[in-house]
């Protein structure tokens, strides 16, 4: 973990997934910030992400609509808090676009990326309001689900046309 994360990571409230993936940081960034790309990998199969809106600016919308294998729909709406091109995305469901309080709060996510040659050091931290919410997220399969989604992201990027 970098210095910032060591200072703010609380194991009683937070979950973390950290890996090095053999994908250039630009492709990981694009997969997270281009809606049509995000829809291809974001939800572990057999779930689907059927809609996505991204307004990539602080206070901008981060919306996804997930569909279960049974056809149930799960909208997730929030906003971006921090954007550092190719390095960091922070978003939350505690706030709606324009920083309007949502009334719902499950987590704030911190995604940090670091280029290591042609690979990327990928770290996702989910911060929760209380230990019960952290436990709920862990029981929902945070590590497996976010890990599977990351595997799907890597596989997706390998299908993209090569650019020079």
Automatic annotation (TrEMBL):
InterPro entries cross-referenced by the UniProt entry: ASHA1/2-like_C (IPR013538), START-like_dom_sf (IPR023393)
CDD domains named among the record's database cross-references: SRPBCC_CalC_Aha1-like_3
Pfam family, one: AHSA1
SUPFAM superfamilies: Bet v1-like (SSF55961)
Activator of Hsp90 ATPase homologue 1/2-like C-terminal domain: residues covered: 23-155
Family: Belongs to the AHA1 family.
Protein name in UniProt: Polyketide cyclase
């Amino acid at each position: 973990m970098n210095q910032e994360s060591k200072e703010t990571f609380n194991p009683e409230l937070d979950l973390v997934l950290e890996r090095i993936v053999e994908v250039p940081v630009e492709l990981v960034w694009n997969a997270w910030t281009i809606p049509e790309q995000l829809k291809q990998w974001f939800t572990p199969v057999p779930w689907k992400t059927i809609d996505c809106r991204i307004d990539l600016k602080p206070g901008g919308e981060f919306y996804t609509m997930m569909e279960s294998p049974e056809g149930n729909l799960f909208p997730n709406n929030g906003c971006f808090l921090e954007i550092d091109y190719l390095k960091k995305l922070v978003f939350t469901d505690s706030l709606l676009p324009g920083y309007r309080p949502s009334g719902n709060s499950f987590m704030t996510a911190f995604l940090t990326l670091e280029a290591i040659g042609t690979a990327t050091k990928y770290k996702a931290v989910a911060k929760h309001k209380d230990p019960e919410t952290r436990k709920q997220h862990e029981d929902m399969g945070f590590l497996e689900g976010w890990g599977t989604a990351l595997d799907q992201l890597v596989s997706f990027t390998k299908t993209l046309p090569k650019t020079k």
